[in-house]
Design brief:
Blueprint lengths: L16 H6 L6 H12 L4 H12 L3 E6 L11 E4 L3 H17 L2 H6 L5 E4 L10 E12 L2 E10 L6 H20 L5 H4 L3 H11 L4 H8 L3 H14 L5 H10 L4
Antiparallel strand pairs: 1-2, 1-5, 3-4, 4-5
């Protein structure tokens, strides 16, 4: 069963995504890119990720906002068909790994496949390996992580995985270009958008005040205004809203 997330994207067109995915492994690269453009062009990133998952020989995908995993909850998830309990169990592991990495290590790890073992107490579907693959990528100013589960005894090609990482970034970029801002988005002022960008980068109010050259209280007022206009209650929710609506 697919994990259900509040902001999970849904197929928006009548083409059969499952039929497209089933044969993806036998496609040429040119055919894959053509189908990927068709799937992602509607703004449905999940359809494109299913194609890539099948093409690389994996069984499940998890796309996450890598720089949000240190926040509470599951707002870091962009799209996934991993079992929900497994995503929830893995979140502390992702947060710990992210916090231990230096900025240089994060930059050097882009599109470099890494393998790790799931926690011993994590539920894994039958026939799926306890080892998973993870890659980071950047789309604009957003750092993302793509994790794959794969069948037992399956050997994934590092070269093909790097290729899939590039195509996944293309898929996300194409999908977000199709996103339309709501009237509420347009109400945000330039200064509010600046504050939203910096809190998405993990900056505190004091740090943002120093960057923008205004007082901490003014920054907090801007952030409060952002949360009011976006109907969010916490900074984490405001960041998730900004990611979903392509504001950062």
């Amino acid at each position: 069963m697919e994990a259900e997330f509040p902001h999970r994207d849904r197929p928006k067109r009548g083409y059969d995504v499952l039929a497209m995915s089933a044969s993806a492994g036998a496609l040429s690269k040119e055919q894959l890119i053509a189908r990927l453009a068709m799937a992602s062009g509607s703004g449905d990133v999940s359809a494109g990720l299913r194609l890539l998952t099948s093409y690389v020989g994996a069984s499940h995908f998890l796309l996450s906002r890598f720089d949000l995993v240190q926040e509470s909850g599951l707002d870091f998830v962009v799209s996934s068909d991993w079992p929900f309990d497994l995503v929830r169990r893995l979140e502390p592991e992702l947060a710990s790994r992210y916090s231990r990495s230096s900025e240089l290590e994060k930059c050097l790890s882009v599109l470099q496949p890494k393998f790790a073992l799931l926690p011993d107490d994590a539920y894994v579907p039958d026939g799926v390996s306890r080892q998973y693959c993870s890659m980071t990528m950047s789309v604009g100013r957003t750092r993302l992580a793509l994790q794959f589960l794969f069948p037992e005894d399956m050997i994934l090609s590092p070269e093909r995985l790097r290729e899939i990482g590039l195509l996944a970034a293309y898929c996300v970029s194409l999908s977000t270009q199709k996103g339309q801002r709501t009237d509420r988005d347009c109400e945000l002022t330039e200064r509010e958008l600046e504050c939203l960008f910096w809190i998405a980068e993990g900056k505190t109010s004091d740090e943002i005040a120093t960057i923008l050259g205004i007082s901490r209280n003014t920054i907090n007022n801007y952030i409060t205004s952002v949360m009011r206009k976006t109907a969010t209650k916490t900074r984490s929710e405001a960041i998730a809203y900004a990611v979903r609506n392509n504001l950062v």
